[in-house]
Amino acid sequence: MVSIARRNIFREKGRFAVTSIGIAASIMLILFGVGMAVGIWDSMVSVVDHSNADIWVLNSQNVDLAQGQSILPENVLTQIQAINGVKSAAPLIYSPSIAEKAGAKQTVEIVGVDSSDGLVLPRNLVSGSISSLNTDNSVIVDQSAQMGLGKLSVGEKITINNSSEQVVGVCSGAKTFLYPFVFTTTQNAQRLCNINGNETNYVLVLVQQPQDVTQIAKQISQMGGVNALPKSEVRANTVNYMLYKSGIGAMVGVFAGVGLFVAVTIVSLTIYTATMERIPEYGTLKAIGAAKRDIYKILIEQAFWPATIGFIAGLALSFAATLVITSVTIIPIEITLWLVVAVYGLTVALSVLGSLLSIQKVSKIDPAIVFRA
Predict the structure, then answer these.
(1) How crowded is residue 285: how many other Cβ atoms within 10 Å of its Cβ?
(2) How many CB atoms lie within 10 A of CB 294?
(3) Residues 36 and 110 both lie in one domain
(4) Angle at Cα 92 formed by Cα 89 and Cα 98, nearest 5°?
(5) Do 148 and 27 share a structural domain?
(6) pLDDT score, position 17
(7) Among 205-209, 296-300, 353-357, the range of highest mean pLDDT
(8) For 99-111, what is each residue's pLDDT tens digit?
(9) Domain region containing 97
């Protein structure tokens, strides 16, 4: 029965090719849309994911990193450091600015850190050294900034908010979906971003005992004017905002919904048309004693192969498009293994379900049809 299914599929190569191309386009739409969304919200929490802090302290109006900039009241850092159970607390400047080089401009995200506390540090260093940040007017730049500023190397100068800064390192993978990161010291970041020396955007807290995170976060929040949240909660809040309030979630739903609908419709109509054309053949199979189960296997396999081959082609197109777009923009696109497996499983399952109309039609065939003139 397997050979019959394959014969039916490949008998009309043109129809099979058109079906596979349609499914491939649908799969590309799904994977590309969802992959872009995943990349965007992962990039928004990259600074959280790569921090070693147990607690993030934001101003009282913020519970995530997506809804405007946090500015904390003065002297919050000193008060937090005095709380029993706090191992260390460090300020974090996290603010957008404009970088320039030879007339070219690039919006960047200034990340002001203290390299001695190690709570947030540049990662995947391509060249240079983190210790060099301790010199005045020094920065480490993510290599994605080169798309706007041109090639960057250690020892070069760039201008940030009219201040000349020396590049002492180049890193990779440190960016949001909009801005590459520029790391510098907290003090230098405050100067570049015009933030008062007693103020900061965030405070990162490391506790002595992990089980005390929730209690210490509540204690910090009682200071007034601040929200203190565990690292995992800040991440979840940011992703939830990007998914449900920013419009990205709706975009993903449209991409995935349209893609799946088109793929299932193509498979269903193709199988149904092929089934109607071969009604006498199925009648013959019934007449010679073929079980319904065997005939249903033929129809299901006729749905499986176009879905699988179309998926493989769509996956290849998605990876190709991802390589092109990420090579010319900083937009992150993450087509992960779990996404590939989930979309493949859903595509095949829905395609098989789409063959039910054909199965229902075949189940009603009267075997006597083959004996009629």
Answers:
(1) 22
(2) 13
(3) no
(4) 170
(5) no
(6) 80
(7) 205-209
(8) 999 889 999 999 9
(9) 73-224
